[in-house]
Amino acid sequence: MQWRPGKSLLSLSPSAIQSMLDRLLGRASLKEQVAELEEENHHLERQLDAEKERRADAATERQRAEAEVNRLEDRIVEL
Q1: Does residue 21 contact residue 15 with C-beta atoms inside 8 Å?
Q2: pTM value?
Q3: Do the Cβ atoms of 17 and 9 come closer than 8 Å?
Q4: pLDDT of residue 8
Q5: 28 and 22 in contact (C-beta within 8 Å)?
């Protein structure tokens, strides 16, 4: 139900009144911006998690490679 001039605001539901106030005060656009920023933040958090995992995997692989180099160097010394 939408409000029309000459009609009492009390006849509207609380959610309809809240919606009208949001539009009048510009809160609807702010809520949209907040929702967009929250979505962007969530996306960036997922990117950060993926990058942390990638770096951890790279560090593990580097340690494996260094261990192999050390093993080969020891073998060369033995020969």
Answers
A1: no
A2: 0.56
A3: yes
A4: 75
A5: yes
